[in-house]
User: Fold this.
Amino acid sequence: MAEGIVGRAVGGLGDYLKEQRIAAALSLRELAEQAGVSNPYLSMVERGVRNPSAQVLQQLAKALQISAEQLYVRAGLLSVEDETGGSVELAVMHDPRLSEEQKGALLALYASFVSGDAGDPLTTNG
Assistant:
């Protein structure tokens, strides 16, 4: 069941976010405010109900003062252990010319292409 797999991956991210929030001595409300997301939304992310976008992950990383890359890996946007992939993700993450926001957007777009969720814009067959 695909939903179970997604739930486990997102739940792992939620647990990690909660651990980081507690380590930073922030309440759920404080982190939500600093990250610019709603309190209920952050609660759902921590419980594994919602899968946040790359942009939200970036905002959370900034508020928690941790690497956005850590959150991208936990969320499955960045795969450094995949032998068949990872080079594109790593190149994006380590490109000093890109802002954190640009990195998040590129990683999200790339993830949608490799997962098959997006059509191929380069294909002109019609």
